[in-house]
Amino acid sequence: MKKSIFLVFALAFSAFFASCSFTGSKDVLRMNVSSEPDSFFPWESAAADTAAIYYNIFDGLLSFDEKGKIHPALCESYEISEDKVTYTFRLRHNVKFHNGADFTSADCLYTYENLAGLNGNTPKNELLARDVESISAPDQYTFVVKTKHPLGGFLALNICPILPVGYTNHAEHPVGTGAYKFVEYQLHQKIVLEKNENYWNSGNQPKIPRIEIYVMSDENAILSALQTKQLDIGQLLSPENAKTLETKFQLFSAPQNMVQILGLNNSIKPLDNPLVRQAITMAINKDEVIEGAMGGFGTKLYSNFSPILGEFYNDRLSEIYKYDPAAAKSILTSAGYASGFDLEITVPGNYRTHVDTAQIIAKELEQIGIRCKIKTVEWTTWLDKVYTKFDYQATVIAFGGKLEPAEVLRRYYSSYRRNFTRFNNPVFDETFNKAELEPDQSKRIKYYKYCQELLTRNAPAVFISDPNNTVLLRKDVRGYEVYPVLFYNFAKMYFD
After folding, report:
1. N or C end of the chain: which has fewer CB within 10 A?
2. Residues 94, 95, 96: CA angle, nearest 5 degrees
């Protein structure tokens, strides 16, 4: 049945593309994404794939470069008070939204009032709601945020999109100040953007007039579209397939600052038992998963952290749980499950790497008596059932990259609403709280490294790898870069 569904979609895409004329134009860049956008209204979106697109439509007060360094965007500059609680943003002049409205501090007030819930409504961002004490706009081009206490990583929260005051139809037609304007979204087909001729950033002017982003997850359809010039960039390809076209295209493969996990629901039996989770961890051969599901293109991980985050990465965790099926079986027996148990692994079917990973893991867990059933679901179903309602036993997914270590590790904080593994550890919570409130960088690093160790030892999930994104690009495409946060920076791309 699943193959039939994929066949129908592949045929539908073929028919759709066949109705169009493609000549390798330099006025249009065509690429694919694997999942439908969940919402172009930033306050309603939870999917990293969607944010990767809407970062082109919206700007924040701050932005980031390919190395994760924070820099001014809609603000020209910013100052932080000596007591580390007052942030003063000096806003750019002569910036316009895509609907022609002028950007001023009123838009910042409107955005942050909604994000932090300072207008009496439900907050759109629980972190800003927790941390922001007040906001003010002394004049049209000055915006001030005062936090309740010093926060070492507060600047990273200010990359959130600034929305125009009074405009609320972003779900159907988003309006920002970004390098590209939204044109249309055809369900199951494509998203279309056009360059903003009046973009404020003279150093990052968009060069390609039109961007077409096709929703395609079937690898054969993607490879076919590349060869027939229906796509200029093909993403999320298996390395072995990408290599077959390496002479005709540019082959690009790099880590993504992502963490692929076998997520375990710590709130249900027998996964509420740390010994069971440790046994599962020791029964999985990560090298075999990386080779089998990623063609060897992945970085092995031991906690919910990629080495891309540099000085915050704890590199002393590899010896805590080694691959050892015999020891895993013994631990499972001591936990009271000598005969094993049944385990359902729910996987979003549009991500081939995760489906392949689940299949390899299922075979490996058979060695210790855990009988796995793989359940593939639509991406929207996964977001609803697993990510939001925690209605699952196990899952394979990859967490999108973040700039701030707290945003990476918060997913395991006991009261965080997106803590879908339902991990609950008071020592982790206490250490995490200390790290967030610590302005001293060396102490923050120490706390965050200990948080990683706690995750490794308590095994709320099996931390597998940072999988490479393997991409084929048309020979004359330039400017494609990987960011520590998933982001397709179309303004940087051009045809040679």
Report:
1. N
2. 115
Distance CA 491, CA 486 (A): 15
State how far the alpha carbon of 140 is from the alpha carbons of 23, 107, 175, 382, in Å: 47, 10, 20, 43
Q: Are 283 and 328 in contact (CB under 8 A)?
A: yes
In the chain, the largest separation of any two C-alpha atoms, in whole Å, equals: 69
Amino acid of residue 304:
N
Report the pLDDT value the prediction gives residue 175, as an integer from 0 to 100.
98
What's the rounded Cα separation, in Å, for the pair 159 and 48?
A: 14
Looking at residue 355, what is its pLDDT?
96
Spatial distance between the Cα atoms of 134 and 118, rounded to a whole number of angstroms = 8
DSSP string, 40-80: SSGGG---HHHHHHHTTT---SEEE-TT--EEESSEEEEEE
Q: Strand 250-254 relative to strand 469-473: parallel, antiparallel, unpaired? A: antiparallel
CB 364 within 8 A of CB 293: no
Residues 415 and 433: their CA atoms lie apart, in Å, by 12
What DSSP assignment string belongs to 148-217?
A: SS--TTGGGGGGSPP--TT---TTTS---SSSEEEEEEETTTEEEEEE-TT-S-GGG----SEEEEEE--
Q: What is the pLDDT of residues 430-464, one digit of tens each?
A: 999 999 888 888 999 999 999 999 999 999 999 99
- Indicate the DSSP class of residue 96: B
CB of 61 closer than 8 Å to CB of 262 = no
State whether residue 88 is helix, strand or coil: strand
Q: At what angle do helices 219-227 and 2-18 cross, to 10 degrees?
A: 20
**Could you tell me if 453 and 225 are in contact, meaning their C-beta atoms sit under 8 angstroms apart?**
no
The tokens for 295 are 């063609």
Question: What integer pLDDT is reported at residue 23 of this predicted model?
Answer: 52
Q: Which two tokens stand for residue 25?
A: 């134009």
**Do you know the residue count of the chain?**
496
pLDDT of residue 166: 92
Decide: residue 4, CB within 10 A, 0-12 exposed, 13-18 middle, 19+ buried: exposed
Cα 482–Cα 444–Cα 421 angle in degrees, nearest 5? 65
Dist CA 460 CA 265 (whole Å): 8
Question: For residue 39, which of 51, 27, 28, 56 has the smallest C-alpha distance?
Answer: 51
Q: Which residues of the chain have pLDDT under 70?
A: 1-24
Give yes or no for a contact between 266 and 348, defined as CB atoms under 8 angstroms apart: no
pLDDT tens string 396-436? 999 887 888 998 999 999 999 899 999 999 999 999 999 98
